[in-house]
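Morning run. Coffee first, then this:
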Amino acid sequence: MPCGRLMFDTFQVDDAEVRKAGSAKERTPPLKKVFREIQRFSRRIRAMRHVRSVRKTIQSQRRNGPWPEVRVAVRIDGGIGDHVVAARFLRDLLAEVGPLALDIYSPKKNVAAWVLGSLDASTRWFDDAMLWDRARKAYPLSIYLTQFAEVYDDTADWRLLADRAPRLLEICQNILKFRPRIDACITHHPYLDGHLGRIATFMGLDRRTFLHGMAKIQYGGDRLPIEVDVGALRKFGLLDRPFVTIHNGFDAEFDKYLIQSTKVYPRFDEVVRRIKSEFPELVVVQVGTVTSTRIDGVDIDLVGITDLRELGAIVGQSVLNIDNESGIVHLARCFDVRSCVVFGPTSIEYYSYPGNINVAPPVCGGCWWVNESWMTQCAKGHAQAPCMALQPPDAIVAALRNYLRSTSLRLVARSNRA
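And here it is:
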């Protein structure tokens, strides 16, 4: 039984209802099950071939040496925000240790290649499915980046690192020395992530800087060069038009069958009406993917329409991004774009950016991972999470009003000069 349920989950579940509903796997047709088994077998074959290829390459380099660069395997999971945080860490790691060759393993290979594409390293990208556990043992160093950094010391070639990358060895030792402080959080990840967040904030760190704190390396800032589609603004009718983006999606990685989340602010339509009334010169553009629901009153709905590079171009030119706590908030900071973030169950102390407009919940809040179902239902058993449902739209508009007012004045002055 997972640790999170054992320690925290006190809510009763009707077993009969669970049996009646059934799981997605129980409802899977037999032919589809066979097809999935064939896919799994095919992936296992590809994984074994990949591992043999990696081992052959590394062994060849060792025989023919000296190596031009140490090749490091890095696993990253999660969504856009997690990849952004990992990219900043790797950027600053490379600044400390010099050239490395990186093999990035991610369940979202396209997201990883997009977000981390600017790293100053010889980089290859691999799908994480069934590869990581086999492949990581073939590398002289393997690192897992999530809410924390984990160095696999059981397979690391410390002699090689001492010879070829002594600064990297020192940083790995820093991470290993830090581990005892959060060992339970690593062992039971993600069920103790809420506790890890409290440890981080107690130490004066947050989601942006915690990996850096573990490694004892300097944080290089929020900005991160990410490739965008420069034609996106013209394509969607936003060229030379001031606009704000708004987003109400959530982490699809948590549960692909999830329709709604406690992280989502349910009254963004009222916020949009007030913004359009006070700032009619601003175009309101909704962005997002499959977990977003349409917000009434937006001028342009781009949910599910943009690709990653188009999304980056639009968010990167936005006057302001209005959001719940999400990956797009992390993305916006890469372009130095401010977000107005409505916080609920996730920790405002841990996840907020100092440069953003961060709206604290009016009640409760900060209950992420107090149980396993925190993201699907209120931890106190309410039909709607009061931390979000009781947040008045006027409070959000009041929080962003001065910023939009000053920005609108600058835009008008620029237009007059033009």
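The chain has a mean pLDDT of 88. Good start to the day.
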